[in-house]
Amino acid sequence: MKVVGIIAEYNPFHNGHLWHLEQARKMSGHQAVVAVMSGNFVQRGEPALLDKWARAQMAVRAGVDLVLELPTVFAVRSAENFAAAGIRLLSSLGVVDTVSFGAEHPEVAALTTWAKSIDNQQTVGLLKQGLDAGELYAAALGKALIKQTGLKPEIINAPNNILAVEYIRAIARFAPSLKPVPVFRREAAYHDTTVEGTIASATAIRQELQSSPSGAIHAYQALPAASASILEATIRDGRGPVFYRDFEQMVLSRLRTSLLADLEQLPDVSEGLHYKIKYSALQATTLEELFEQSKSKRYSRTRLQRIVIHALLGSRKDQIRFFDDTGPRYARVLAFNDCGRTLLRQIRSTAAIPVITKTTQYLNSASRDAKPLSGLEAMLAVDTLATDLYVLARPNPKWRRGGLDFCTSPQYLSSQPTSV
Fold this sequence. Notes:
Layout: E1 3-8, H1 15-28, E2 32-38, H2 52-62, E3 66-70, H3 72-75, H4 79-92, E4 96-103, H5 108-118, H6 121-132, H7 137-149, H8 153-156, H9 159-174, E5 179-184, H10 202-211, H11 217-221, H12 225-237, H13 248-257, H14 260-264, H15 273-283, H16 287-294, H17 301-313, H18 317-326, E6 331-336, H19 338-350, E7 355-356, H20 365-370, H21 375-390, E8 411-412
Parallel strand pairs: 1-2, 1-4, 2-3, 4-5, 6-7, 6-8
Antiparallel strand pairs: 3-6
Helix pairs in contact: 2-12, 4-9, 5-7, 5-9, 6-7, 13-15, 13-17, 15-16
């Protein structure tokens, strides 16, 4: 069976994702699709709208055959680390030969030129000049690349192009046998904030749902029928949606009670930022105030959001460096269909890492806190802790109990793909 891999967040799974899924299968000519998906916290340093099992169910109902979780230690990271971990996980399965991703300008040659230019000496020198002048990393790198490659600014500054380039860089470094298949991003832009048709950005969908979870008519029209049904059921039961504002008291209390030395060891914290975060946490009464008081030219809001999530999870720089060196230590199954079941049997004989369908075979609630952990156990412990914290923000207290990772099985769903 020929398999194409996708790295995604599906936050939530919308018609644009369905378009990409259909094009990925068509352009690659492959029979099966494996998606590596962020868990309960996502790359921008935010909680996912719905929990990982609901979003995995959306994906399988739409036609993805197998959904695996991208470990949290990689999901809440910069584009470079996020992409590298996703590629390494797909490669480690031993069955994927093609990786597909969205891009505003899906020309492999241009994206590859960009990818090769990032690490050359001239680009690094120009980047350093920009950083020394006080520019944000992304802005400084963009200017350096425009000068070095001659590519147009609209190509360099497009958000999905940036992630696409990181996938190509990761393929070159970790899995050179994988073939990249970029797909044109259809209609809605990544940062669009309004829903104006059947294709909309995930950002726009989330914003409309935040304004009116039960009455977001336009948001629902941008979702496949199965996704809309799952979203409706989740809202009705009070298991979602979940937004950053729901973590406000949790975040402020965590930061106010943290030692400066601990804040200094958070991933992405440098140049005395821990002092600013600590002071802002004492002065701020809302998350908006916290981010406004803490951000600067050097530290974007997205980077601050990731730092805050790492503070909640208790992440440390040395731990993250270790995980970056090893890469994903397991492939944890969230959902699958009939084709996915067949694929899982194949993966179990080809994968270079364990395939986890029952968490307690590798970690349980007692061992998580009672003994020194191996690398695999420590990585898995972060995933389980992320869920324990995430559920505290659910609207209905009935659904806030912890330990779900230890008692929730992968979802088997027998269904036919839907179309836009």
